[in-house]
Amino acid sequence: MAETLAAASEAAEKMPEFPMPRAAGCPFAPPPDVEKLRAENPLRKVRIWDGSMPWLVTGHALQRALLADPRVSANDKSPGNFPFVTEYRRQIAEFTPELIVNTDAPVHTRLRRTVNGPFVIKRIEAMRAPIQKIVDGLIDDMLAGPNPADLLTALALPVPSLVISELLGVPYEDHEFFQKNSSLALDRSAAPEESRAASTALHDYLDRLIGEKLVNPGEGVLSELAGRVTAGDMTRTEAVHMGVAMLIAGHETTATMISLGTLVLLENPEQLALVRDSEDPKAVAGAVEELLRYLSIVQVGLRRVATEDIEIGGQVIRAGDGLVIDLHAGNWDPEAFPGAEQVDVTRPARQHNAFGYGPHQCLGQSLARLELQIVYSTLYRRVPTLRLATTVDQLEFDHSGTTYGVASLPVAW
Ligand code: HEM
Predict the structure, then answer these.
(1) Mind listing the pLDDT tens digit for each residue in 375-403?
(2) Greatest CA separation found in the chain?
(3) Contact 248, 403 (CB under 8 A)
(4) Which of 115, 304, 355 most suits a substitution to test ligand 1, by most atoms within 8 Å of the C-beta?
(5) What domains, with CATH codes, occur in the chain?
């Protein structure tokens, strides 16, 4: 018995720690130790911050199989060892109501249906002209202002913030408040009290807005949610949480793809030329997919727990085992994308996992794609001399957020 315990403790000692650091000077690649683990075994256990040992899934095909498997749950209250991202997330799990992000079918199916409407491709496509206007206006302002400028504050953050404000019916004047608090709520290095205060502030804010829309419905998704509350399809708490989820998910991710995507292209001028000079909208759409794959900005891994034993990839995942699905590693899996470490905007990359896969795959993906296609097809054409006004090693990369990003991106033209 003592020997078995000693062996188990020795095995735990040798268990790799997750997350792992990226290599200095390689801002776009997954951590080298993650790449090594995938090459050795794309499904293996690691140790996370609380000492628990979930499976780390790094193979592209395994990720898809598991994310689509009904025995794999997103419900952090499921029995077993759900691999929480932070102590704060663990603390709040039991008090958090059923939400789109932490439920399985059939509850998830019902909640997702309540917000699907505004995100169907036809309604998103109708936003093309207004988004183009927003992008043109912001580029006009940038060109009229000081040179160099910070692309993050001039374009990358305002585009998705303006779009999501418009879509939800949230006043854009409040953008500094919701940008700051969303970022804090998702920051792994923030203290639990800090995350809680940021999250409470966002919930109070959305509760006030939903309250107003219940009395005076207007345009936008929040009014639609208020309508569903009035009709008895969902509770006010559910509507508030849904609004917060969309506000948080809807701007930082896309902002990061605008800034980091531009950085990758500026560092790879031949790829930038392909995007800038192509007359074919499909070529720009393809470049968006490749940059989503290459950057895979959701850097913490999707978190799940097995509800039954699952035999897969020559292993048995036991009921109650946690799963961490590292999207960046999956999107650099050479079996799915040969030469994955090269950015190649002509590569057919649409099968990437950057928006997740299965029932929880990104609700806002059509909107994100549209925003990115418009920005990428406008910015480099209108500003053909765009260049980095610093060096990559001077940039401050954010390693502690749910999404990877840069604190600022100084550009000149
Ligand atoms: C480039 C930008 C974006 C990226 C890379 C991204 C990535 C993701 C990923 C990986 C997931 C899956 C999470 C999981 O399975 O646990 C997800 C879910 C989600 N995303 Fe996005 N997202 C982006 C933009 C957006 C936008 C613009 C919205 C707009 C409202 C949005 C709303 C959501 C929501 C509500 C979910 C939860 C869906 C569910 O659990 O059923 N996202 N996103």
Answers:
(1) 999 999 999 999 999 999 999 998 888 88
(2) 74
(3) no
(4) 355
(5) 2-412 (1.10.630.10)
